């Protein structure tokens, strides 16, 4: 991993990275007393929300004076966007086709079974305020585990969550990389399940409520997202499922790299650095699983007769965009 940049420089880009990699968000309409999960696409830093046609959020777009969108990142970040909503003209399928992962070699999660995509409406937020909350290194039960401000208490604890189980009141939830289909809220659901969902949302908000930074709108608009970091979960899942056999072949032809530490030197903590070698005596493995991907290389576990070992396979050069990952994997496979 490269050394982190100062918080003041990293915050706008990191905020753009969070929204670029997100698949869903928590939409809050305080005046309508609505709160629920919706599908999410990134349109140059502005969220495009996917909700069920005819739902309260769809009706509120254009009339509600303010809305709030909470987006959680893979590293515990919480991006909070505030602004007004408007309905995007045209079919939601056209909006999804235009925005779903430009330059990303792995497809975005599908909409699910036939007919679901025709039930969606795309709503755009005109962003007026941006804030990013980062985890702080505190002990369990410390500051990071408490609500970050009274604003959080108002938005999450005092909003009526009735009828907002996962999809929110009448909202639609685009699948994350793990779920398989969008959900429609049911008005007849009991209050207990929505309350449980609200408790989970409040827990996540507290966990990510450490250090909040308000971001200048111009800096946010001009910042570029790190697409490798944003799409890493999708890319890892894609490699582990679609290309599992190729990844196992790569792991079978890796050998440890001599780090010139001298005989008897202790192996540094973390994955063992390896490289690909052309050999007819590749070790036989039961399997291999990628756990992490960044600009520099892949971390994976390889499982063999002697047990499991975590290794790091570096790339020839740091990746600049997701498209380069496919070329790098093909080059590595050409070595075995």
Automatic annotation (TrEMBL):
Region ranges (Disordered): 140-208
Gene3D superfamilies to which the protein is assigned, alphabetical: PNP-oxidase-like (3.20.180.10)
One Pfam family here: DUF2470
Basic and acidic residues bias spans: 149-164
Every DUF2470 domain range: 234-325
InterPro entries named among the record's database cross-references: DUF2470, Haem_oxidase_HugZ-like_sf
Protein name (record): DUF2470 domain-containing protein
């Amino acid at each position: 991993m490269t050394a982190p940049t100062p918080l003041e420089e990293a915050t706008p880009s990191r905020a753009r990275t969070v929204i670029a990699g997100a698949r869903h968000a928590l939409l809050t309409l305080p005046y309508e007393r609505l709160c629920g999960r919706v599908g999410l696409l990134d349109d140059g830093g502005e969220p495009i929300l996917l909700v069920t046609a005819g739902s309260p959020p769809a009706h509120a777009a254009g009339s509600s004076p303010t809305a709030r969108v909470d987006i959680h990142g893979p590293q515990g970040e919480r991006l909070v966007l505030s602004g007004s909503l408007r309905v995007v003209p045209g079919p939601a399928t056209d909006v999804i086709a235009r925005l779903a992962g430009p330059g990303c070699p792995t497809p975005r999660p599908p909409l699910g079974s036939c007919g679901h995509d025709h039930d969606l409406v795309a709503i755009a937020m005109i962003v007026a305020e941006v804030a990013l909350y980062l985890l702080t290194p505190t002990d369990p039960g410390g500051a990071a585990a408490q609500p970050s401000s009274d604003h959080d208490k108002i938005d999450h604890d005092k909003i009526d969550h009735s009828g907002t189980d996962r999809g929110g009141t009448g909202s639609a939830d685009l699948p994350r990389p793990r779920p398989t289909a969008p959900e429609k809220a049911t008005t007849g659901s009991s209050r207990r399940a929505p309350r449980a969902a609200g408790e989970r949302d409040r827990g996540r908000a507290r966990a990510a409520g450490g250090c909040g930074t308000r971001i200048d709108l111009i800096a946010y608009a001009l910042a570029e997202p790190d697409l490798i970091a944003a799409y890493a979960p999708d890319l890892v899942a894609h490699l582990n499922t679609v290309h599992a056999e190729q990844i196992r072949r790569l792991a079978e032809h890796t050998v440890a790299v001599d780090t010139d530490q001298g005989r008897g030197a202790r192996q540094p903590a973390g994955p063992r650095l390896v490289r690909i070698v052309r050999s007819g005596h590749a070790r036989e493995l039961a399997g291999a699983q990628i756990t992490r991907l960044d600009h520099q290389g892949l971390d994976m576990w390889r499982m063999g007769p002697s047990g499991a070992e975590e290794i790091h396979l570096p790339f020839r050069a740091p990746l600049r965009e997701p498209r380069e990952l496919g070329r790098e994997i093909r080059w590595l496979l050409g070595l075995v």
